[in-house]
Amino acid sequence: MAKRNIIPFGPQHPVLPEAIHFDLVTDDETVLDAIPVIGYVHRGLEKLVEKKDFIEYTYVAERICGICGYMHSFGYCQTVEQVLDIEVPERAVYLRTIWSELSRINSHLLWLGFAADAMGFESLFMHTFRLRESVLDIIEATAGGRMIFGCVKIGGVRRDIEGSVLRGIIAKLQELSPHIREITNVFLEDYSTKHRMEGIGVISKEDAYHMGMVGPMIRATGIPSDTRQIGYAAYKHVQFEPATAETGDCYGRCVVRVKEIFQSIDLVRQLVEKTPDGPVEVKVKGTPTGEFFGRIEQPRGEVIYYVKGNGTKFLERFRVRVPTFANLPGMIQMLKGSQIADVPVIILTIDPCISCTER
Amino acid sequence: MIEEQEMVSIEKRDLLEMVASLRPSGYRLVQICTTTLADRYEMNYSFDKDLKFRNLRFTVLPGETIPSISLIYGNAFLYENEIHDLFGITIENMTTDFHGTLYKTRIPAPFAVRVSEPKESSGGADVEEHHG
Amino acid sequence: MGMKIPRLSKTLIKSLVGKPATEMYPQKKKTYMDATRGKVENEIERCLFCRLCEKNCPTKALAVSKEKNEWEIDSLKCCLCRRCVEVCPVKCLSMDNVYFPSVRTRAEGKYLRVLPAGVVPAYQKAKEAAVKPKEVESEKPEAP
Fold first, then answer.
1. Residue C10 lies inside a defined structural domain of this protein
2. What is the value of pTM for the model shown?
3. pLDDT of residue A108
4. Tally of domains in chain B
5. Interface mutation vs chain B, best among A43, A203, A317, A331, most B CBs within 10 Å
6. Domain count, chain C
7. Cβ-nearest to A38 among B44, B102, B127
8. Which domain covers residue C36, as residue numbers?
9. For residue B12, what are the domain limits?
10. Which residues contact B124 (CB under 8 A, 6 or more apart)?
11. What percentage of chain A reaches a pLDDT higher than 90?
């Protein structure tokens, strides 16, 4: 007679980067249901728009999360600029896109390291983080900070990157590429990592689409949906295809993220070749009136920013819908029927960013 | 404009019907958002198909209940629970109901419409009044 | 089954014989990049005490007093955003590339800069310079 237990997972767990809690209803070793409890990192940042004017709010938006910080400030500034109807200079648009691709490489290397740690392969985790340090050095040399970039403002960017530094970035990334290739080959072809990831956490195409999953989660089931194809920022000037896999399990998501690292290195090269000269900022006049839903593609998926202004310098509403929030229902579906030893790997494959989820 | 966005204003009673017609056409639910206006709430239901964005919008008064769409779109329960916790709007027939325990905040509905506002300063001022 | 060469062999051998990838901090000092955002310093002789930096600081880490000619920064509140440096009209604020040092009490984290006694503040020098040319012009017609 099988016994039913309720096993608590989190908020403190070695594999979780941030605090989230699940009550796993298990039947011996098989998980039947998972009930999420979130709210550990809720800071009420959306209410802070009433106290900080829309220019100062860029600094708050950057600090919603550590790893996705730059993308939040970039998306916020882009959405407010659409509401204000101001045109950002071309060079600033290209520089913002270069920084966003660097942020994507950084985030995917971080995820690969955490995935190795979740599987128990600590030495691979350390080697991945050693490679990530080179990318963080590039970001610090151009933007000023390793995690909090602080280089975007409404109307453009705060710092310029010279042509010689841009070419240095390409050279550095080309030098790094064979090392990343060696490390990611271990993830994709080694027997022990494949055994931990293949066939785990399978979700079908229709389920993933209707549950509203976004990002590498949905691209791993075979649907080539990527918000960068809208053509915001400088993405309309570059060529790329969304990276997909066919299996819909944890291994497929790993394949998609590895393909995206190399795609980003190629995108940086294409962008640097096309960056025009010119000013990097434009003066901001007036206050926002109107609303807009801005969408960008974060490393974890599609983010939506809703900005509504009513003519005063304080915004009326600012709302962020982050990809982890959209992926949570799908993840709960994936947990049903899995073994309890696979639960950490499944939770880690959605790339949970709980600070963003709860703002 | 980066992209064209379609904003459709509807009535609350047409919500379930319109959402039920969007699902077989292949639209996915992107988000549900609430804005606090001076004396009412404005609800925005956003859908997307192949990068085409469509937004349904209607207003509710404080005290009204809204039907849940979680039977049509399974992932709506998370957005609806958040709206219930932060704004105090009652949503009926949710598939998974947390009964107000999703976000534990010190004051029960932090974003709700403040009907009895003594002064015309920004909303942050009366949060401090509650904290005492 | 033959001996399989591990995929990571190149990296493994490099880590075995090469030097470690980590630095022995704090024995070895960290070298920062030129662009790193670090601690904020003020050249008090050029400061106008206009309080623009105080009004624009997102975390309210600055306190400026015109009567006492004082400028104070609370390093534990400063989030290193560089807004004060951009907003200053005479560019007397600068950002070094070394971070604020760690402290043990909150009081030690506040850095106070006072204009030394006897030095003329910059806003007074600007006022005197604006008054002087009129006196010189009034003298000119008299001198043949």
1. no
2. 0.87
3. 92
4. 1
5. A317
6. 1
7. B102
8. 32-115
9. 5-131
10. A47, A48, A50, A51
11. 8
A308 and B78 in contact by Cβ < 8 A? no
Contact B19, B69 (CB under 8 A): yes
Asked whether the predicted pLDDT for residue B120 surpasses 60, the reply is no
Query: Is residue C110 packed enough to be buried (19+ CB in 10 Å), middle (13-18) or exposed (0-12)?
Result: middle
A241-277 residue pLDDT tens: 888 888 888 888 899 999 999 999 999 999 888 888 8
Say whether residue B111 is in contact with chain A using an 8 A CB cutoff: yes
Q: Does residue C142 have a pLDDT over 80?
A: no
B35 interfacial to chain A (CB closer than 8 Å): yes
pLDDT in tens, B62-72: 888 888 888 88
Res. C37: pLDDT tops 60: yes
pLDDT (average), residues B91-103: 78
pLDDT at residue number C127: 73
**Could you tell me if B24 lies within 8 Å of chain A, comparing CB atoms?**
no
Taking CA–CA distances from A134, the nearest residue in chain C reads C21
Q: What's B29-85 look like in SS3?
A: EEEEEEEECCCCEEEEEEEEECCEEEEEEEEECCCCEEECCCCCCCCHHHHHHHHHH
Find the residue in C nearest to A186 (Cα).
Answer: C7
Look at residue B132 and tell me whether its pLDDT is greater than 50: no
Domain of B109, CATH number, reads: 3.30.460.80
- Count Cβ–Cβ pairs < 8 Å, chain A vs chain C: 51
Query: Does the model's ipTM exceed the 0.90 cut?
Result: no
Contact present, A57 and A154 (Cβ < 8 Å): no
Alpha carbon distances (Å) from C42 to A107, A135, C79: 36, 32, 17
Contact in structure between A257 and A111 (CB atoms under 8 Å): yes
C-alpha A322/C-alpha A332 separation (Å) is 17
d(CA A323, CA A295): 11
User: Is there a domain that residue C18 lies in?
Assistant: no
Q: Which chain A residue has the Cα nearest residue C81?
A: A150
Domain contains C50: yes
The CATH superfamily of A43-333 is Cytochrome-c3 Hydrogenase, chain B (1.10.645.10)
Q: Is some CB atom of chain A closer than 8 A to the CB atom of B59?
A: no
Query: CA nearest A307: which of B11, C125, B33?
Result: B33
The enclosing H or E element of A324 equals helix A323-335
Going by pLDDT thresholds of 50, 70 and 90, the confidence category of residue B56 is confident
Q: How far is B13 from chain A (nearest CA, A)?
A: 24
Per residue in A287-316, pLDDT tens? 888 888 888 999 998 898 988 888 888 888
For residue C139, give the amino acid letter.
E
Whether C125 maps to a domain, the answer reads no
Which tokens is A202 given? Answer: 């399978």
Contacts of A189 in chain C (CB under 8 A): 7
Domain harbouring C109, CATH code: 3.30.70.3270
